[in-house]
Protein: cNMP binding domain-containing protein
Amino acid sequence: MMRKQVDIAEQVKQLKETRLSSYLSSQEIETMLSHCKIVSFLPKQIIFHQGKCVEGFYLIVKGNVNVYARTLGEGIKKIEVLGPGDFLGEISFIENDPSLTSAITEKQVKCLHITSIYFELLASYSPETKYKILRKISIQVCRRLKHIHDKAADFIAHTDMIALSLFGRVVHSFTHPKPLAHSIDYTPLRKKVLFQRFTEIEMDELFALMQPLEAPKNCILIHEGEKNPSCFIVIHGAVQSSIMQDNKMAKLSVIGPGTLFASIACVDDKSEFTITFMTCESALLLKISEEKLRFLQKNKPLLWFKLFNLICESIIALGKSINKLDIRLHIEMYNR
Structure:
């Protein structure tokens, strides 16, 4: 056996001992190693800096990595410790933005460096492998989201933020989206960046499964505590994502036309937290229900993989919004 084949066989064995083997086959791991390299880092070595772009992203094979962020009032703070099977730099890579954190090794660390070229090739040659990786990335992001969500919810509960009035709660309980009475011209939507990965036939199939809705202002689309997976595309109007706690609301971000947003349950239906989505003005939307999502997953896997790309991007965008809220809460506590 050639030396390179021996090395790859040994590396496949290493990766099969991580959580990677729980969702990728031996063949998928071997193919990945033919395009990507396992790289070693010394103790206390910086893998990437906050504010810098990361080429590709990393999967930790061995050792632990400390993730830090510089925040106002607290200086440099350790955010989390990641270990074998966890991803590094994935948010910066998917968003194509500078990293919001720095990553520094504790002791000697080995990582699989997943290059941007390889990851883009997966869309054409192995979309299922790409989907499996994106799903695990999304679950890891949701794990972070829950940590910050719970911290924010606790802060909200113990502050003097104004709670929703009885009238406001009644309005929210009685306003519901309604099926649109007239047909929609999908031509402008087809030209949006959102659908650049989809063929005309795929867009036709997807639009046929979507329900057009009209929703008044202050209409809750995804409720606090809702466990059913669903996603929406905003055609007109705007939607506000928020954390709700004890009838108090901390706003996250405003979602405008041509954007998809999804419930946490689309990634993790066992999740113990939810994000509330509510119209901040009258809106026209397309909804993909739990039933239709499961239909796609079972009967149209290639279309489902592409849709999940958008779901993953929406969860990561949500993560950035919650990170900004976390910073605002740090500032609030610092000012006190």
About this structure: Residues 173 and 220 are 8 Å apart (CA to CA).
